[in-house]
């Protein structure tokens, strides 16, 4: 659905060039939820704004649905952009227009008949759960409700792609989750390809199928979310994964246990059905080692359940080595920490 080929972008500031993107290659499939994660200044906003040419790349190609956007005339680009919706961190709503008018705006620009606009606005209000708020102004809404208006407006012209520029960064955790759930429903119901940028691994883990990690204007790692989560390669990816992995309490416990003596502490990650099976207990029965749970969590990676247990293994050296091998042979990720 979206291909970025050797994309470069630098900004001109005075007489100097500020590099923002350096040789980006990305391919995003139809119907995917694709996340791009990076620290501040890594180039995320520039990247997503290049996907609808809000930002003109310095060189490279941006192909959306088979069309190279960089080759279009201004008029053709305007037409094509109707098929690419976008939502923003600070919502960008018209403050002097009601919720209904904000959603109707792109339909009016597309010169749709009045009856069509009425019908579509009602449909979109229902989709985002704001039927009761049609005549309110943005100032009368909460952050989450404003973002719902932003989403409805972005969907007005039935786009094939929805770009989300830090769409939940201004929201509290609970509201973030409700907006992410809405995006996931929209992706399922309407089959829209969603690209989102964020600096929060939690967002990636909740709804994305694949993720790219951007650092210094380059993609340093990309892959299915579960792979990147379980086997992060690049130091920046590892940092992001740690954001959602270990609590301070765990780090303190591990440090304390290690200080007390020569302890083997492992982090075991379960994915999918294994999450609910007594794999650990069965393995210990085989090897004769025993374990002491230091921390455990069960969560979800989009639709896949996953669990992490941090345990201290106890037994003879050979039993411990056998246990780690046996767990790995059962397909579990085991990291000795
Ligand atoms: N309009 C601009 N003029 C000059 N430099 C810019 C401009 N916009 C971005 N930059 C620079 O380009 C680089 C990438 O910026 P970008 O905003 O894309 O990063 P980001 O990952 O989205 O960061 P943040 O999360 O802080 O928004 C940074 O060095 C930034 O200072």
Automatic annotation (TrEMBL):
Pfam family, one: ABC_tran
The ABC transporter domain, residue ranges: 2-241
Family: Belongs to the ABC transporter superfamily.
Protein's organism: Effusibacillus lacus
SUPFAM superfamilies in the record: ACT-like, P-loop containing nucleoside triphosphate hydrolases
Molecular function terms, GO-annotated: ATP binding; ATP hydrolysis activity
Record-level GO BP terms: amino acid transport
Cell membrane keyword on record: yes
InterPro entries with a match to the protein in the record: AAA+_ATPase, ABC_transporter-like_ATP-bd, ABC_transporter-like_CS, ACT-like_dom_sf, MetN_ABC, MetN_ABC_transporter-like, NIL_domain, P-loop_NTPase
Keyword annotations of the record: Amino-acid transport, ATP-binding, Cell membrane, Membrane, Nucleotide-binding, Translocase, Transport
Cellular component terms per the entry's GO annotation: plasma membrane
Highest taxon in the source lineage: Bacteria
Protein name in the entry: Methionine ABC transporter ATP-binding protein
């Amino acid at each position: 659905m979206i291909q970025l080929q050797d994309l470069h972008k630098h900004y001109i500031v005075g007489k100097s060039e500020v590099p923002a993107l350096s040789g980006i290659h990305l391919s995003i499939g139809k119907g995917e939820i694709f996340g791009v994660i990076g620290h501040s200044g890594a180039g995320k906003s520039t990247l997503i704004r290049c996907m609808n040419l809000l930002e003109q790349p310095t060189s490279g190609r941006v192909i959306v649905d088979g069309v190279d956007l960089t080759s279009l005339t201004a008029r053709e680009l305007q037409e094509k952009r109707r098929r690419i919706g976008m939502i923003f961190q600070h919502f960008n709503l018209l403050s002097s227009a009601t919720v209904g008018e904000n959603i109707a705006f792109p339909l009016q620009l597309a010169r749709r008949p009045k009856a069509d606009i009425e019908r579509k606005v009602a449909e979109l209000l229902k989709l985002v759960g704001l039927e009761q708020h049609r005549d309110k102004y943005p100032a009368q809404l909460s952050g989450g409700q404003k973002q719902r208006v932003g989403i409805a407006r972005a969907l007005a012209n039935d786009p094939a792609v929805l770009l989300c520029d830090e769409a939940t960064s201004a929201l509290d955790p609970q509201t973030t989750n409700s907006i992410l759930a809405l995006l996931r429903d929209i992706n399922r119901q309407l089959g829209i390809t969603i690209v989102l940028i964020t600096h929060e691994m939690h967002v990636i883990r909740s709804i994305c199928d694949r993720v790219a990690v951007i650092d210094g204007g380059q993609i340093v790692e990309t892959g299915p979310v579960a792979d990147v989560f379980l086997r992060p390669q690049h130091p920046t990816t590892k940092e992001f994964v740690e954001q959602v992995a270990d609590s301070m309490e765990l780090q303190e416990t591990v440090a304390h246990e290690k200080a007390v003596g020569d302890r083997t502490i492992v982090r075991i990650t379960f994915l999918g059905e294994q999450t609910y099976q007594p794999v650990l207990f069965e393995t210990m029965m085989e090897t004769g080692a025993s374990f002491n749970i230091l921390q455990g969590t069960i969560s979800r990676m989009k639709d896949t359940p996953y669990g992490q247990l941090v345990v201290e293994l106890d037994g003879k050296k050979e039993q411990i080595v056998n246990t780690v091998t046996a767990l790995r042979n059962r397909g579990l990720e085991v990291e000795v920490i």
